[in-house]
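User: Reviewer 2 asked us to show a designed sequence for the structure in our supplementary figure. I'm pasting the structure tokens here. Could you produce the per-position amino acids so we can include them in the response letter?
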């Protein structure tokens, strides 16, 4: 396999560590920092308030044992990791945050947030769990409540002009992220899933969104040139995988690593840190807050019931990225994604018959051997169907 990487990749791979210094300097200069845990937290409102949004979703096993002194052991590892970082104050981005924006996506998170609110100021958004007109009306009120909290916390006024500007900036970020991911529509892809995940994960810690957009655009251009030149770490016969399900990041990426070490290539991440993120907010509307509410309420997370949007999105992405198989990743204790996996598999089988594998795991390496066997068997099935040797 050719292991050549785009030059910009190394710069992005070190972004998280370098931006800690930049964030600290921005704080010392008077900037405000808002930590978020979920895609449902509207970045536009934070940007319009003149603050810096940073992602705090826990993706490491390291703080989990400390969290389990308070939280149940059979709870989702994402929740335990997020709380562990907070209670130990070992995440610099959490430490530098002035305010946390949380959301009631699931029972485990909303009850954990009650404990986290004792550590740092926290605003909890009451998320509707259905996507209809009544839910939209309620969600608009929740966004207005968040606006008031930001205004009161930071002594600012969030104007309509500021919201329009924030929408344009965040939409440009979404365009940039979609263009990056779309390079993997090429067969073979010019970047591994592991490296793509590194970029998607690290750019979320950027202090300056415009700088991050320019950096990702530069990487995308390099990858497009590599694709034209036929440079890839894979061959045309490498099984192409769409990974759907729970959020994945650096530290919670063992399934990504195992798939690619076993001879596959993850060409698309449907999850909320990746392709779920790219749909833009409508620009230039008379009511920018309503436009933001409409876009965020459409996010097809399994906390929504029903969640037809996710089924349709996975089917479309599998087709557009020419995926040979779908892996549905579920964290242990995540009942919404675990139960929904049955319906997703049925939906895909009825429409395309694409091979499907569900994996339920946590952040630890305790089941690595078992997972490797299952993943290798799944890839072998795909190899046979592709006629690969």
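Assistant: Here is a per-position design you can include in the supplement:
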């Amino acid at each position: 396999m050719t292991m050549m990487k785009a030059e910009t990749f190394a710069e992005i791979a070190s972004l998280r560590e370098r931006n800690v210094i930049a964030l600290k300097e921005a704080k010392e200069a008077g900037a405000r920092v808002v930590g978020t845990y979920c895609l449902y937290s509207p970045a536009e409102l934070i940007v319009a308030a003149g603050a810096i949004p940073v992602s705090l979703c826990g993706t490491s096993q390291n703080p989990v044992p400390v969290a389990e002194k308070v939280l149940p052991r059979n709870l989702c590892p994402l929740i335990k990791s997020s709380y562990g970082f907070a209670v130990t104050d070992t995440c610099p981005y959490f430490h530098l945050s002035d305010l946390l924006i949380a959301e009631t996506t699931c029972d485990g998170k909303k009850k954990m947030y009650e404990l986290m609110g004792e550590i740092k100021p926290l605003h909890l958004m009451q998320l509707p769990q259905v996507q209809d007109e009544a839910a939209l009306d309620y969600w608009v009120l929740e966004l207005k409540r968040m606006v008031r909290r930001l205004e009161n916390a930071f002594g600012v006024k969030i104007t309509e002009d500021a919201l329009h500007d924030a929408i344009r900036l965040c939409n440009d970020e979404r365009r940039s992220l979609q263009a990056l991911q779309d390079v993997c529509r090429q067969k073979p892809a010019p970047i591994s899933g592991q490296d793509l995940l590194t970029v998607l994960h690290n750019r979320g810690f950027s202090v300056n969104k415009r700088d991050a957009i320019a950096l990702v655009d530069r990487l995308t251009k390099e990858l497009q040139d590599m694709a034209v030149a036929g440079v890839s770490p894979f061959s045309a016969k490498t099984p192409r995988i769409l990974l759907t399900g729970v959020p994945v990041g650096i530290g919670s990426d063992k399934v990504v690593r195992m798939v690619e070490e076993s001879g596959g290539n993850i060409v698309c991440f449907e999850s909320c840190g990746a392709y779920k993120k790219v749909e833009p907010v409508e620009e230039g509307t008379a009511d920018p807050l309503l436009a933001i509410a409409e876009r965020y309420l459409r996010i097809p997370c399994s906390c929504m019931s029903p969640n037809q949007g996710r089924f349709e999105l996975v089917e479309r992405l599998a087709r557009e990225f020419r995926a040979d198989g779908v892996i549905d990743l579920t964290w242990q204790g995540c009942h919404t994604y675990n139960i929904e996996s049955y319906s997703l598999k049925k939906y895909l089988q009825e429409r395309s018959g694409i091979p499907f594998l569900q994996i339920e795991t946590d952040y630890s390496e305790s089941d690595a051997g078992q997972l490797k066997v299952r993943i290798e068997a799944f890839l072998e099935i795909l190899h046979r169907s592709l006629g690969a040797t």
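For the response letter, you might also mention the following. The radius of gyration is 20 Å. Strands lie at 33-36, 52-55, 99-103, 122-125, 240-245, 265-269, 325-331, 356-361.
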